[in-house]
Amino acid sequence: MARVGNSIIKGIETKEVINLLNRAYADEWLAYYQYYIEEKVVKGIMKDAAIAELQEHAADELRHADMLAQRILQLGGTPILNPKEWFVHSNCGYEEPKNFDILAILEDAIKGEQCAIRTYSELVEFTRNKDIVTYDIVSQILADEVEHEEDLVALQEDIQEFIKQIRGN
Ligand SMILES: [Fe+2]
Ligand SMILES: [Fe+2]
To answer: Is the pTM of this model over 0.90?
Structure first.
């Protein structure tokens, strides 16, 4: 545990920061798996573009989980050790892909990103001017999640436009 490093946290409980980071950590693992499996089962028009995007997002979510785990350890906490706990502590839960059509898969993924954006916005607000190191980490992740949402929405719009053109209207 970083002793002097942790003494610079002001006005919020370290325990509470660890708790919130662990909840986000659970989200990231579930988001990672959601992208991992979506990329495998997705079907339909422009599937290859979606697969590339989903793979990239899966890698980002896993990297986020790693950033959070490192910070939890630095603060003297323990990252969630049992995957069963992911569902108990997650903010955003898990959208099991039920419809493998590309537009439905993208819709599920967009919902997940929107929840992630809300979660990290709260974490940024909570740590601002209080825990600079965590603030920096959650700000970086927030920027990635905003980019993720934008990429997915852009892809969804391209596909919808392409379908319109094919139908000739
Ligand atoms: Fe993430
Ligand atoms: Fe994301």
So the answer is: yes
Give distance in angstroms: CA of 135 to centre of ligand 2. Answer: 18
**Domains in the chain, please, with CATH?**
14-167 (1.20.1260.10)
Residue 7: strand, helix, or coil: helix
**Ligand 1 midpoint to CA 84 (Å):** 19
Answer whether 117's CB lies under 8 Å from 142's CB.
yes
Query: Does residue 91 have a pLDDT over 70?
Result: yes
45: CB partners within 8 A, 6+ apart: 102, 159, 162, 163
CA of 167 to the centre of ligand 1 (A): 36
Q: Are 69 and 126 in contact (CB under 8 A)?
A: no
